[in-house]
Amino acid sequence: MGARDGSDAFGPTAGLRRLAAACGAVRQAVAAQDAPIRIQVTGRSGVGRTTVAQVLERAGFRDVAETSPIDAPDAPDPVLDGDVVVHVLAVAPRDADIAALRRAPRGSTVAILGKADAQGSSWAAAVEASNACAAETGVRTVPMVGTADDVEAGAEAVTAAVADCIRVALARRTRTLLATLAAQAARGPEREMIEDYLRSDEAVQAAARSAAVVTGQASAESAAERRRAALAADRAQIRASVHDGIGAAVPQW
Ligand SMILES: Nc1nc2c(ncn2[C@@H]2O[C@H](COP(=O)(O)OP(=O)(O)OP(=O)(O)O)[C@@H](O)[C@H]2O)c(=O)[nH]1
Ligand SMILES: [Mg+2]
To answer: pTM of the prediction?
Structure first.
């Protein structure tokens, strides 16, 4: 399989390259757009980070790096500054996982719930646990069962989720680049050249495509947020009625 980095949709295009060649002020911003997408695979020690990184590399993703473990005794947590973060969990997420996932950038982070087989639970239970993790953290979570040599289940969903994260990361980059170009045009001597580019079909289409990806991701996120809030309200109501029921059953004297 060829490299999968989403650059077909959002990589620097001919017009952008021409602009960068002609206009020194924007060269750095265009180079940032061209930089490879860095995928960090993180998680607690022994959860399966190397295994997941190998699965991603075999699927054709480039620039995949395993971080040092999170929540390791006497060691600071790794800096998660990748464009995409893949957070591996071994079935039940610990507090440190939940905290990290709650802080993680939405849309460019995915959690992988691994080792369902080793825990003796069924695939259906792993799917349910993934959904519970997603509901709790707001981060898309997919189950996977595998070893370094072989993935038994879930590899396709994992690669699809990582590809979606890359699309979101690239769309954010495009929006940053277009905003930087507009700011440069407003103050720089090469204003006309930059504005010509920003008015080009290429730039207008890139703006529309990246806005659609980022907005789509944000509205999926707010729908998930609404579901989480409804779930939390349901749970609170159940807790209150159980509490009232118990209260009512206790004789008051
Ligand atoms: N049964 C089972 N074993 C797994 C699975 N994923 C990984 N393993 C095994 O778990 C062990 C640890 O996996 P690694 O991928 O090395 O985990 P890691 O997080 O990179 O571990 P360290 O870098 O040593 O902290 C290896 O023996 C893997 O073969 C899985 O889904 N099921
Ligand atoms: Mg490892």
So the answer is: 0.82
Domains of the chain: 1-253 (3.40.50)
Phi, psi of 195 (to 5 degrees): -65, -35
Write the residue with the smallest CA distance to atom 30 of ligand 1.
115
DSSP-derived secondary structure letter, 149: S
Residue listed under structure tokens 């944000």: 218
Measuring from each residue's beta carbon to the nearest atom of ligand 1, which residues come in under 6 Å? 43, 45-51, 69, 114-115, 117-118, 145-148
Point out which residues pair with 39 in neighbouring strands: 64, 84
Q: Which contacts (CB < 8 Å, 24+ apart) does range 158-162 have?
A: 158/52, 158/55, 158/56, 158/110, 158/112, 159/4, 159/55, 159/56, 159/59, 159/61, 161/110, 162/39, 162/56, 162/59, 162/61, 162/84, 162/86, 162/110
Give the whole-angstrom CA distance, residue 235 versus residue 17.
54
What is the C-alpha separation between 87 and 130, in angstroms, rounded? Answer: 12
Within 10 Å of residue 24's Cβ, how many Cβ atoms? 10
Give distance in angstroms: CA of 140 to centre of ligand 1: 21
Higher pLDDT: 207 or 106? It is 207
pLDDT band at 146 (very low <50, low <70, confident <90, very high): confident
